[in-house]
UniProtKB/TrEMBL annotation, chain A:
Keywords, comma-separated and alphabetical: Methyltransferase, S-adenosyl-L-methionine, Transferase
SUPFAM superfamilies in the record: S-adenosyl-L-methionine-dependent methyltransferases
Positions with a binding annotation for S-adenosyl-L-methionine: 93, 118, 194-195, 224
Positions of region (Disordered): 1-50
Function: Methylates the carboxyl group of the C-terminal leucine residue of protein phosphatase 2A catalytic subunits to form alpha-leucine ester residues.
Bias type Basic and acidic residues, positions: 35-50
Protein name: Leucine carboxyl methyltransferase 1
From TrEMBL, chain B:
Protein name as annotated: Serine/threonine-protein phosphatase
Lineage per the UniProt record: Eukaryota, Fungi, Dikarya, Ascomycota, Pezizomycotina
Organism annotation: Aaosphaeria arxii CBS 175.79
Regions of compositional bias (Low complexity) in chain numbering: 206-228
Annotated Pfam families: Metallophos
Top-rank EC class of the record's enzyme: hydrolase
Disordered: annotated span: 205-242, 402-426
Record EC number: 3.1.3.16
Keyword Cell membrane in annotation: no
GO MF term (any one): metal ion binding
Catalytic activities: O-phospho-L-threonyl-[protein] + H2O = L-threonyl-[protein] + phosphate
């Protein structure tokens, strides 16, 4: 564990120490403000997790685990080489989700929609455009305004990115005002939105408008380490606003989750305690501790045609071909096998869908995928 | 740093406080260490009693906890099975402290090489970066790597007792007394927590060990030759065969990783030219990289170096070399130690909450001293770790009559045709299990370790 991998705690401390609300946050100002202070800190910590993910992606790309020419363009911190086991984990996570998405893209020739929750610096849209230049795809990314602003700035800065957008449809991202937080076009949309407002407004029936979301297109919802930061009931309301309001039945919809599991064993307890020192809390981890809980949860959301789960250890074993395993194993000497297995067993991919059954787009796309 | 103990003691003091020593002192220390290590064979002879430790990985504060639990140097005789560096934040302080102790008390501490004591591995897993960060140059890393090349590849512990005197300490919470053997039983294994409280106790040949399944009678482990000696003087045993068994344990081979298909006798280890960087293949590499596994014979290692080896390999090797046990490290085990293959091999892991992330406990393995006259030496820091008690020495405890000795076993097995597979009774084994040092004892909150996760 080299020095560069130690997250910079000073950024968190800085906001805690230097923030104007320090006195109140420490409790003298009464419960309400102290609570808000804590929540603000938590939000900031969650927003910062995105650069963590970006750094891991760059490390993977530079070592040859993943092919992603765009990863580096979004990373704001200098690339630091991650430990081999983290590279392996990032590889499994990304390639597993890529596999599910690819099968969706290939399932039919019709137009499709993807909504990425807490997308952050994710490069998936740009990679999909390269891979499926002719496919009609409407892509949406939703994240905190600070993250979407940073993303749009990166897009404006790099021709490799903004040229991808202008070649297809207006408007030109270069025409956006400085510090813009949203971007809309017929194929690519960036929405600045705190997902929790969906949970709040679904009760009041005043959902915010999300431009260009098409209620009729087969839609894949993607949550890679996003919804896990919210309480389970909030997650349920957010998802039901998508599954019932934005994309009402009978439009086919699916959800892919990537989240940690097994909070109650020694590794899981340590994870929770370590992350809490970074002000990161994972409420749904406790709500859905086992693989079976994740599966039941998908069914609960109404994914009756399919609800499947696999931890990333089993995905490495069962989804990755022998040839690919050999390629990846040769990239770096990996001495931390026991630890890798431990780590991979504590993350899972869960995928569930609702469609018309045997001829449905998701039923066809994901029929052959083995769950654990 | 002069050869005298004074400067060395000062360096030890400074390192114990987790403060690095100046570069010129490191150079001198490493030079002395090399002079010392070059005299050691590839396989160091070590007399019991000895406390065997597994991977440390730069977890300095946990190393201090290990010394608290196991006793300090030189009061306790230590054997560290490698992987002192990498992964943790204090590889430098941890390794230099152990090296200082080695130079100061060469007969009370044995260091053997792990697969991380290598130039190539330390550049990937942190030790190189740490040296660069703490000294501004790679010189110290280079000095340390030169020492790595001189570390022994293994150790052979002789004179270990086969039985334990049950620790006369308090019971740990949640200890199930129903499973405890009778007070007069022959104790083979005892597990204590960091406070010296008893967690488990197993009697030799008792049902409580039924978790170790008897292997196929047709398997390869043959019968040891009849021991020539008789029971020690003063034995209260009813027959010499029964009496002698107390001291009749083979040696214990300690090695970081495991066995090699190129090595069938310990003498072949002695013949290797070890003074080099760990090679990518070959016997020396295997000893540092291999793992036992539930397979037959040899298998390819998923680590990309070394091999996997099965129970048959271990039993055959132990028989051929008159070993009662192989102790090794190298693999994280959540419980701190793991015996395999009917207790013919044990993994000892001494880095609690490995990488500040894994949540595992750590363990050290104490082997007592055989012999009819030597008394159990109470640890000098008995107020900290030990719960009292001691090793059975000789066999005058009166309990040996209910024990079946090796000589007897053989006769019995030939008559009854049962599956006596063990050539040698393993040594009595006392495991002390401990958790990570409390976070607040680590000081320096800015360096408070935060492990990496997928976010």
């Amino acid at each position: 564990m080299s020095g560069q991998e130690i997250p910079d705690l000073r950024t968190l401390l800085g906001s805690r120490r230097g923030g104007p609300s320090r006195g109140r946050a420490r409790g003298r100002g009464g419960f309400g403000s102290s609570h808000e202070g804590r929540e603000a800190l938590k939000d900031e910590a969650v927003r910062n997790t995105d650069q963590d993910a970006a750094g891991s992606r760059v490390s993977c790309v530079e070592l040859g685990y993943l092919h992603d020419p765009y990863a580096k363009l979004f990373a704001t911190q200098p690339a630091t080489r991650r430990l081999p086991l983290l590279n392996r984990g990032s590889y499994v996570r990304t390639s597993a989700i890529d596999d599910l998405v690819d099968r969706f893209m290939n399932a039919s020739t019709g137009p499709k929609q993807i909504i990425s929750l807490g997308a952050g610096t994710d490069t998936r849209y740009f990679r999909l455009r390269d891979r499926y230049p002719d496919l009609q795809l409407v892509y949406h990314e939703i994240d905190f305004a600070t993250n979407t602003a940073a993303k749009l700035t990166s897009i404006q800065r790099h021709p490799q990115l903004h040229s991808k957008l202008t070649s297809r449809s207006a408007p030109n991202p270069l025409a956006l005002p400085p510090a813009a937080t949203t971007y809309h076009s017929s194929t690519y949309n960036v929405h600045a939105l705190d997902l929790r407002t969906l949970a709040a407004s679904s009760e009041e029936n005043t959902l915010p408008t999300l431009p260009n979301i098409d209620p009729t297109l087969p839609t894949l919802l993607l949550s890679e380490m996003c919804l896990v930061y919210l309480p389970a009931p909030t997650v349920s309301s957010i998802l039901s606003s998508f599954l019932q309001k934005y994309i009402p039945e009978p439009t086919p919809v699916s959800l892919i989750l990537y989240e940690p599991i097994l909070p109650n064993d020694a590794f899981g307890r340590t994870m929770i305690s370590n992350l809490s020192t970074r002000n990161i809390h994972l409420p749904t981890l406790l709500a859905y501790p086992e693989l079976s809980d994740q599966r039941a949860r998908l069914q609960q959301y109404g994914f009756h045609q399919g609800a499947h789960v696999a931890d990333t250890a089993s995905i490495w074993r069962a989804w990755v071909t022998d040839e690919e395993k050999e390629r990846v194993a040769a990239l770096e000497m990996l001495d931390e096998l026991e630890e890798l297995d431990l780590l991979l067993r504590h993350y899972c991919v869960a995928w569930g869908w609702r469609d018309s059954g045997s001829e449905g787009v998701f039923t066809k796309a994901w029929a052959d995928i083995k769950e654990q | 740093m002069s050869s005298g103990g004074c400067d060395l003691d000062k360096a030890i003091q400074q390192l114990r406080a987790c403060r690095p020593i100046p570069e010129n002192q490191v150079r001198e220390l490493c030079h002395k260490a090399r002079e010392l290590l070059i005299e050691e064979g590839n396989v160091v002879g070590v007399d019991a009693p000895v406390t065997i430790c597994g991977d440390i990985h730069g977890q300095f504060h946990d190393l201090m906890e290990l010394f608290r639990v196991g006793g300090d140097v030189p009061d306790t005789n230590y054997l560290f099975m490698g992987d002192f560096v990498d992964r943790g934040f204090y590889s430098l302080e941890s390794f230099l402290l152990l090296l200082c102790l080695k130079v100061r008390y060469p007969d009370r501490i044995t260091l053997i090489r792990g697969n991380h004591e290598s130039r190539q591995i330390t550049t990937v897993y942190g030790f190189y970066d740490e040296c660069l960060r703490k000294y501004g140059s790679a010189n110290v890393w280079r000095y340390c790597c030169e020492v790595f090349d001189y570390l022994a590849l293994g150790a052979l512990v002789s004179g270990a007792a086969t039985s334990l005197v049950p620790t006369d300490g308090p019971m740990a919470e949640n200890t199930n007394l129903d499973n405890f053997p009778d007070s007069d039983a022959d104790i083979e294994i005892e597990t204590l927590n960091a406070n010296g409280e008893i967690m488990y106790r197993y009697a030799r040949n008792s049902d409580s060990q039924s978790s170790q399944p008897n292997s196929n009678p047709a398997s390869s482990s043959p019968i040891a030759p009849t021991p020539s000696r008789v029971g020690p003087a003063g034995t209260g045993a009813t027959s010499s065969a029964n009496g002698s068994v107390k001291n009749d344990t083979g040696a214990i081979l300690c090695v970081h990783g495991g066995l090699s298909p190129l090595i069938d006798t310990i003498d072949k280890i002695r013949l290797l030219d070890r003074k080099q960087e760990v090679p990518h293949e070959g016997a020396m590499c295997d000893l540092l990289w291999s793992d036992p596994d539930e397979i037959e014979g040899w298998g390819l290692s998923p680590r990309g170096a070394g091999f996997l080896f099965g129970a048959d390999i271990v039993k055959c090797f132990n028989y051929k070399n008159d070993l009662s046990l192989i102790a090794r490290a190298h693999q994280l085990v959540m419980e701190g130690f793991k015996e395999m293959f009917e207790s013919t091999i044990v993994t000892v892991w001494s880095a609690p909450n490995y990488c500040y992330r894994c949540g595992n406990v750590a363990a050290i393995l104490e082997l007592g001293e055989d012999g009819s006259n030597a008394g159990y030496q109470r640890r000098s820091n008995g107020d900290q770790g030990g719960g009292g008690g001691g090793w059975i020495l000789g066999s005058n405890d009166g309990s040996s009559s209910n024990m079946v000795g090796n000589g007897n076993d053989r006769r019995l097995s030939s008559v009854l045709g049962d599956n006596m597979q063990r050539t040698r009774d393993g040594p009595g084994r006392r495991y002390r299990v401990f958790e990570a040092a409390p976070q607040d004892s680590r000081g320096m909150p800015a360096k408070k370790p935060v492990a990496d996760y997928f976010l």
